[in-house]
Amino acid sequence: MMTLDQLNAASAADFVALLDGTYEHSPWIAERAAAARPFATLAALKVALARVVREATVDEQLGLIRAHPELAGKAAVAGELTAESTNEQQKAGLTACTPDEFAQLQQLNAAYNARFGFPFILAVRGPRGTGFTRAEIIATFERRLRAHPDVERAECLRQIHRIAEIRLNDKFGVTPSLGQQLWDWAAELARHSDDPEWLTCTYATPAHTAVAEQLMAWMRECGFDDVHRDAVGNVVGVYNGTGSASTEPRLLTGSHYDTVRRAGRFDGRLGILAPMLVVRELHRAGKRLPFGLEVVGFSEEEGQRYAATFLASSALTGAFDPAWLDQTDAAGVPLREAMQSAGLPGTMDAIAALKRDPKRYLGFVEVHIEQGPVLDSLDLPLGIVTSINGSRRYTGEIVGLASHAGTTPMGQRRDAAAGVAELILFCEQRATAVADVVATVGMLEVPSGSINVIPGRCRFSLDLRATTDEARDALDADVRAQLDEICTRRGLSYTLQPTVAANAAPSDSAWQARWEAAVTALGLPIHRLPSGAGHDAMKLHELLPQAMLFVRGGNGGISHNPLESVTVDDAELAVLGLQALLNQLEPGAA
């Protein structure tokens, strides 16, 4: 097996020879990466190789893609693949296709080459490393055939990096066992769903309770000293430190285990499973930290069944609103009744008792999938969160006059949909002009619309976010002023109903620095980015200093979607990063 010492000490020519086969027929990548030596970790080597490709010319990138064979293509049939490609295609079962599967793959290969001018690239061993099925490969092929050429070229390069990563693991004899365990746990939890077809786990349903029970069982197996489900359904595990369990300081960590509808497996749950693995490793080593570690699987963050978003973390900060207990879901079931049906007390006395004393805690840290494309586009496995965006959300309606599409002159129309369309474009332009500000109209509806009627009403939503409250409020004021101007000029009226107002949650500087030191210890470059999505950390921010670590998501960083994905290698780095952070802490750290 190869070692980093061997690679770092090799001549430039030997360095290239040692990495032969990592990138298909492309020694220039290793030649350029050699200058970045020494590599402290295998992860550092992987990032350096990917950086060479990212900084290469488009022609060089296309050459790299075209150096790869088609899946189950002519080269495979003729036995002309490299040893590495042969092994990968065999493991994916592509050498055992049925005649129909083989014919379908040939059709897809031809269509893909005709559209993009290069072969379809897929790391057939997948994010788990054990391989996609042929059906999964064909489904991915069909989905990506519809992509934009620029998007698909970038995805091919990312798939090539994943292929290289797996080949490097093989060369170095490395198995990301912690990442594999996390991945397998996430897959097991995904079996519990409100919907038999797509992962959906909403608050206080039987599937939700089953996930909580499974998490508690695993926590006990990992060696937690205390495991329980609290009055709002949070799964709480405590691993005591070296001091007195009743008085020693604790670090709080965790994330949520509920999901959106048609969800992915890692949103929220990754941030519970990673610290569980940290505790398991501590327990196996017979080691205690100089503080307690409290891991919370928050029972609700997504606001899918009830409008009481963050009800789980709000209970810990003392901000649970008693009025929430009377909220009803789409079936008319009050929250109090849903809690009681799930075996929870559903009383304010029990919920109020969950409030944490900030004097007892060092802070709150959260590991979370990025839910965006930034890290994936930069070929970086981990990122440091600088702030969780503040937001304002509205639902609104513009009212004009429904009239005949053929007989009403353009200058005499009061088109409600055109008014909203103008507002959408303004939101896009205004948000684009300021860094780390975003604006979205995610819902758009013309009630009782008809192809030959000018819209008299148009309903819409507004989602305005920024890394600071000042930037958010400035965006909010400008958008509302523009809405008023548009309607006045066009002879329209409007209503605008606020639905959410959340303040920004900047990361605590000391805790952010600890995450940065942890990522540096893994041999990875530091990349800082804001979180556009809301997280439990933004509620704990009201009580404790907090900071977050982001983990790269695959498939362009997509989340809240069944395509959401994390590789076992990135999951491994997330666990190791959390371990590195904990190793920096002393009692009383803040």
Automatic annotation (TrEMBL):
Cofactor (UniProt): Mn(2+)
Ranges for domain Peptidase M20 dimerisation: 390-486
Keywords assigned by UniProt, alphabetized: Hydrolase, Lyase, Manganese, Metal-binding, Purine metabolism
GO function term, MF aspect, one: 2-oxo-4-hydroxy-4-carboxy-5-ureidoimidazoline decarboxylase activity
Name this polypeptide is given: 2-oxo-4-hydroxy-4-carboxy-5-ureidoimidazoline decarboxylase
InterPro entries xrefs: Amidase_Cbmase (IPR010158), Bact_exopeptidase_dim_dom (IPR036264), OHCU_decarboxylase (IPR018020), OHCU_decarboxylase-1 (IPR017580), OHCU_decarboxylase_sf (IPR036778), Peptidase_M20 (IPR002933), Peptidase_M20_dimer (IPR011650)
EC identifiers of the protein: 4.1.1.97
Organism: Pelomonas baiyunensis
Broad EC category: lyase
